[in-house]
Amino acid sequence: MYNLIILLINTDCKVHNKLMSNRKNKEGFVGVLVLILVVIIGIIVFFYLKQTLFKPTPISSPAPIKVSSPPSPTPVSVSPQPELPYTGKPVIYFYPTKPTDITVHLDYNGTITDTYPRINKLTNNWKVQAFPDGTIINIDDNKEYNYIFWEGKLAPNQFIDTSHGFIVAGDETQDFLQNKLKYLGLTPKEYNEFIVYWMPKMQHNKYNYIKFLYDEYTKNAKLTITPEPDSILRVFMVYKALDEKIEVEPQVLTTFERKGFSVIEWGGSEISGGFEKYE
User: Fold this and answer.
1) pLDDT tens track for 143-199
2) Angle at 85 between CA 236 and CA 198, to 5 degrees
3) Contact 55, 133 (CB under 8 A)
4) What Rg value do the Cα atoms of the chain yield, rounded?
5) What 8-state DSSP symbol labels residue 52?
6) 3-state class of 147 per DSSP?
């Protein structure tokens, strides 16, 4: 009995120990599972937090600093060389020694804007009958005129050499023109008509630069007159209003002598652009 009791006790102990061992093993296994689960959850939480709370703010490249260019300097206005922009009121007088049929052809470097009497636009010709007293009959309309009048706008870049000329006070314009035009060869009738047209444009200026052109004008307005005159005078004045008196070399003028069949022309223009003295 004793041995049986001892055997039962031992058996019970073994069973108990085995149960305890199994329980411990089961608890250890569960613990391992829990630990693994905790680790997994921790890893998930770590990566989640890393992607949200601990996500590093990307360092963006610094915005380029815009350095504004310094403002371009305002260009200094440089006066262009004085230019002849138009041909103002040339008038042509004819003084044949006897009544003469005359053809006048104008070869103009630009656009003819006005004529009186009308020019033939196909040929750029006038056909007139001229008389010794200066009157003319225009063949196209059979009407009487004192002269042929025309005006035009020159082609660009017709520059003027202003190193020579005259500086005249505005209120002295009349006397100056009377003296110089008479010296050049115009009659009182001719230069009075010139002055009446140009003086109102000039006399109220403080000063005027004045020059009489020769080749600078005639090369741009070529006249072919048939029959050819014995003498021809073409007076073309340019001027520029000035606010102050300047020094220029006086222009040397030549006088004109009428011979036989004479043709006289006068006209003018205001110089455009700036004014400089060109040596």
Assistant:
1) 999 999 999 999 888 888 888 999 999 999 999 999 999 999 999 999 999 999 999
2) 45
3) no
4) 54
5) T
6) coil
Beta-carbon contacts of residue 184 (< 8 Å; ≥ 6 apart): 212, 233, 235, 253, 254, 255, 256
For residue 246, give the nearest of 201, 276, 279, 212 by alpha carbon.
Answer: 276
CB contact at 8 A, 227 and 261: yes
Q: Is 142 left (phi over 0), alpha (psi -120 to 50) or beta?
A: left
Contact partners, residue 203, CB within 8 Å, separation at least 6? 170, 171, 173, 174
Residues 208 and 242 sit within 8 Å (Cβ to Cβ): yes
pTM (2 decimals)?
A: 0.70
Neighbours of 252 (CB within 10 A): 6
Q: Cα(145)–Cα(134) distance, rounded to whole angstroms?
A: 9
* Strand blocks (E) in the chain: 86-95, 100-108, 110-116, 125-130, 136-138, 143-145, 148-154, 164-169, 207-213, 221-226, 231-242, 249-250, 262-270
Question: Residue 144 and residue 160: Cα distance in Å, rounded?
Answer: 36
Beta strands 231-242 and 207-213: pairing type? Answer: antiparallel
- The 8-class DSSP code of residue 261 comes to S
- Give the tens place of pLDDT for each residue, 62-114: 555 554 544 443 333 334 567 777 788 899 999 999 999 999 999 999 999 99
